[in-house]
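Exam prep: given the inputs below (a chain plus succinic acid), describe the expected output before reading on.
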Amino acid sequence: MMLHPSANVIGGEISDLDLSSPLDANTFREFKAAFYQRSVLVFRNQTLGGEDLLGFARQFGEPDQHFLAHYAHPAHPKILVLSNIEAKAKKIGFADAGRVWHSDGSYMQDPVAITMLYALEVPEQDGQTLGSTQFASAWRAYDTLAPSVQRRIAGLLAVHQVGGRRRQLNTGEASDRAQEDAQPPAHHPLVRVHPYTGRRYLYVSKGECEQIVGMQDAEALALIDELAQSIHADANRHVHSWRPGDLLIWDNQALQHLATFDYTWPQHRRLMHRVTIPESAIRADSR
Ligand code: SIN
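Solution:
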């Protein structure tokens, strides 16, 4: 397996694997070690049908289905379609994913461990690709906190609510917003321990988290803001510039991500297939 690490603390490219057939056990083990080390990796030049994408995901564990079921792939409900494309005046997929820094599914009791995003159509203008995705390392953020802050946040629980993300922006379809607001909140430790790497990482998103259990709101919001700034520091970041045929996979526990909305319909078309695997589904030999 040829791994080309990026110059950043996270990120890298794998140039020589075809994911349309299952990886053999040795290659998968080697890939997994590189993946958890680099947190986000891209396989270029893939041609993947729905079954191929789900087959690769199942090497880690059984994917889940997003609660916005109307954006599910018609033949493969465990694939969420992300797209700005309209047909008959309706978006063919979820057009609004990733407008604020977040970790997928952190508002669930059983959050997402691994996300895969496969690019079918990538917006382009004047030879430049648009719609890149940014990542930030939540484990490096924890490692670089002052010891006094590490002590202060040990044992604290943040309240995660997906509706909070959208309230910051007030974008998107009203019916999606109503479904998001109906999702119950989840409580998670501000500091979690990664099951594969053993690293401690910050698990808190500004907007989605507006409360810390047992803390006054003003103090909680100030602490959430301070931790969010630590996560998104330049030294923790990596930007993925998309090409059609990219299969990007990220360690959703170790990272936060943010989509770039520098493209518009109908000038530009963006079409992605997303698969997520919840923490509880990760096979014991993949933790
Ligand atoms: C997401 O936030 O899950 C999607 C990111 C992207 O589309 O770039």
